[in-house]
Specification:
globular, seven-stranded mixed beta sheet, 35% strand
Length: 746
């Protein structure tokens, strides 16, 4: 993960009144630390323990000698940045931390002492012996919801917690919650205006094979997902499935666990299996996951990944729902139904659609107490994939012909509906939609109709048209703003008009067509379902579109799309778009795992003048030996400004090893000029100069963020850019800073 951790001039919010901002801070004086720890390690341990923060971004104001800054990274679950107004302290601390080999995940930076150089809702913990000119309102701005400030007052550490506001929402199941309506109550999610963070991997593994993202949920400010992290070099190499936890607001990887057996990764793209999306759910600080293909459901601590409980009788669970402390599970007592699949063709999509339909074999439907593990009831049930839903009082599902309703407490059958229409084939990428909304069950089976059933009796209340709304994905069925929404894909002559019906009567209350002159669609539909908030429907047409239901307006974002099969996830005020393996206009689309933020309550920063953006270094105005590079040098990336990658010099007859120097971690390509080799130690934020004849380390310079490419040499100077948006100029003879320019101040 490479979040916008060091973007020193990132977007800032204008502060509300001090009284308003403090209203979201709970001051917990009862947790103050009254004893000063004897060592930095002990003090850091005490601070972290009292804060309760178990991972994420830690910011320290006032770095001293950097020892406490270093100690605050208690494990790989943390990233730490120290801030100080004293440039000399910053330089000294960088050297001291670099000497420990920990620089990068622990970094320090100079700041102005007035504004914290972070976007809103970014840091999990802020530690300060003295806030200086930083107000608590400013601290509150950069803390994530439930983030903590540890500030020393009167010799004691005082803990302040930023409360989570109602405008943010979780996303606990594939279909948002156990009832099956993919609509978040998050009021901050909207058309994206900036990145909150971006993470690896850059791409899914292959365009014609299984998506690398199988499942994803977000609870309590954390994001959990199941991903194949196998080699992107070849899909023929083995899969490496992991269950991964990140902080939802800054992307820090909190923990990951290997999965030894998952679905066949050579399974064709756009063909499922959709059940995999329902093997992971969240509840506060817990997650429930069937992380081994034929293994039992386990309960894990969301912050640490530690096992809380295993449910032995759930072995073979294909789907998990959780509501009111009860797990509702669809369990396959036999083998995973796709165990025998073996690829035959480059793309087996057609073969899979006709050979690998839902097997219609009975499964075991059971209810389990999540805290005790006690099985409350179980029974055999023929349940179509991903149609199971519950509101905690009733359990509903589609059995292939009828919608069935059970009592959630006892498992006893309450009613069976009349026969419902469906598609001829229920392939593994598809699924009829069943959802509970208030006292109505809504159903769409892919036959061109949608229906409303009475939740108490199963009696059909209404029937209406349902246009094809997905592409190789389950039917879209969404209730937002009190209406049932449906719209065609806009392909094949469909208009894309949205129709909103009363969920109890089916009466059409609203209809509106796309208002975008160039159309909402100009490529094929994406292979995942639509999601929504109460304000926006987020279709899956070309990129990520936001349809404002009140303004009846489309906001198109063709430059970003969701992960294949899973799609996007709106939560925490953000829209998460996972890595895809899509080859459609890849030059224009974002890659990687992106967390996109809207512009709500977060105006653009004030532009900075050129004078403010240019900073002079210690070597400014001093003499520079303006030695030219010669014909045998390689002074810039790929040799020259044309990036030719070519030199016409002849090579020595003996190309044996001349020297070797150890630099840990990822390195950039090298450049060579004026007798020196220049290479960046990427994650350590450091540029090194080596003697080109011996490999001896001559000097190094630590920048404000990652340096992922080598410098250009010109007349005794080296120039390079960092991920902090800064262009640096160093004196080549000794690495002294001549100047730095904030090329990307926002």
């Amino acid at each position: 993960m490479k979040s916008l951790f060091n973007n020193k001039a990132a977007r800032l919010s204008r502060m509300g009144s001090t009284a308003t901002r403090f209203a979201t801070l709970a001051i917990s004086l009862g947790f103050s630390l009254h004893a000063i720890a004897a060592t930095p390690d002990a003090e850091a341990k005490q601070i972290l323990q009292t804060s309760g923060i178990k991972g994420g971004i830690v910011v320290q104001l006032g770095i001293g000698d950097g020892k406490l800054t270093t100690a605050l990274r208690a494990s790989d679950s943390y990233q730490v940045q120290g801030l100080d107004t004293d440039a000399k302290k910053v330089a000294a601390a960088r050297e001291a931390i670099s000497a420990t080999g920990k620089y990068g995940p622990v970094a320090v930076e100079k700041f102005d002492g007035k504004v914290l150089p972070y976007i809103d809702n970014f840091a999990n913990l802020l530690v300060a012996e003295d806030l200086g000119g930083i107000s608590m309102a400013e601290v509150n701005r950069v803390l994530v919801p439930n983030g903590v400030a540890m500030v020393k007052k009167g010799g004691a550490w005082t803990k302040s917690v930023k409360t989570k506001e109602a405008k943010f929402d979780d996303w606990t199941h594939y279909y948002y919650d156990a009832k099956g309506n993919t609509v978040s109550k998050d009021t901050q999610v909207g058309p994206p205006e900036r990145l909150q963070w971006v993470g690896n991997p850059r791409w899914s593994r292959h365009h014609d094979r299984m998506s690398s993202v199988s499942a994803q949920v977000s609870v309590n400010g954390r994001m959990f997902y199941i991903m194949d992290e196998g080699s992107r070099i070849s899909i023929l190499l083995p899969s490496k499935w992991h269950l991964i936890a990140r902080d939802g607001f800054n992307g820090t990887v909190l923990w990951k666990k290997p999965i030894t057996k998952w679905s066949e990764h050579m399974w064709p793209l756009k063909t499922g299996p959709t059940q995999l999306t329902r093997r992971l759910v969240g509840d506060g600080d817990r997650i429930f996951v069937a992380s081994e293909l034929e293994g039992p459901v386990t309960c894990l601590d969301g912050a640490t990944g530690k096992l809380i409980r295993e449910y032995p009788e759930t072995k073979g669970a294909e789907e998990i729902l959780h509501v009111n402390g009860v797990l509702y599970l669809l369990v396959n007592p036999g083998q995973w139904s796709l165990t025998d699949y073996a690829p035959k063709l480059q793309s087996d999509q057609g073969r899979v659609a006709n050979e690998y339909e839902w097997d219609k074999k009975p499964r075991v439907l059971m209810a389990v107490n999540a805290d005790s593990g006690k099985v409350l009831w179980k029974q055999d049930a023929k349940c179509a994939p991903i149609t199971l839903g519950t509101d905690g009082k009733r359990v509903v599902y589609f059995n292939g012909d009828h919608v069935v309703c059970l009592d959630a407490a006892s498992g006893e059958q309450q009613w069976v509906s009349s026969e419902q229409g469906k598609r001829r084939l229920i392939e593994y990428n598809f699924g009829p939609r069943v959802l509970i909304y208030e006292d109505v069950v809504l159903y769409a089976g892919g036959d061109g109709l949608e229906r409303g059933l009475d939740l108490k009796t199963g009696k059909q209340l209404w029937e209406g048209s349902h246009e094809k709304s997905g592409y190789r994905s389950p039917e879209d069925l969404i209730v937002a703003g009190g209406l049932v929404w449906n719209a065609g894909t806009t392909s094949g002559g469909q208009s894309g008009e949205f129709t909103g019906r009363d969920p109890k009567t089916g009466e059409v209350k609203k209809k509106f067509a796309p208002d975008v002159p160039d159309g909402t669609y100009w490529f094929h539909h994406r292979c995942y379902i639509a999601k929504a908030t109460e304000k926006f429907i987020i279709p899956s047409r070309t990129g990520i579109e936001y349809v404002d239901l009140e303004k009846q307006h489309w906001d198109l974002n063709h430059w970003v799309r969701g992960a294949c099969l899973y799609g996007v996830l709106p939560a925490n005020g953000l829209t998460y778009a996972g890595p895809h393996n899509c080859a459609c206009y890849p030059e224009a689309k974002l890659d990687g795992m992106n967390a996109l933020a809207s512009g709500a309550n977060s105006p653009h920063p004030k532009p900075r003048s050129d004078a403010e953006r240019l900073e002079h270094g210690p070597a400014w105005g001093q003499k520079v030996d303006e030695k030219e590079s010669d014909a045998k040098d390689w002074p810039t990336y790929r040799h020259d400004a044309a990036r030719s990658g070519y030199s016409d010099q002849s090579l020595l007859p003996d190309l044996g090893l001349a020297w070797e120097t150890e630099l840990t971690g990822a390195l950039s390509a090298p450049t060579i000029a004026a007798g020196k080799v220049f290479v960046a130690q990427v994650d350590a934020h450091t540029l090194h100069a080596l003697d080109h004849a011996t490999g001896k380390k001559l000097w190094h310079f630590t920048a404000g963020a990652r340096v992922d490419s080598p410098p250009t040499y010109w007349k005794g100077r080296v120039f390079f850019g960092g991920k902090d948006g800064v262009v640096y100029c160093l004196r080549a003879s000794d690495g002294a800073l001549v100047w730095k320019y904030h090329g990307a101040p926002s």
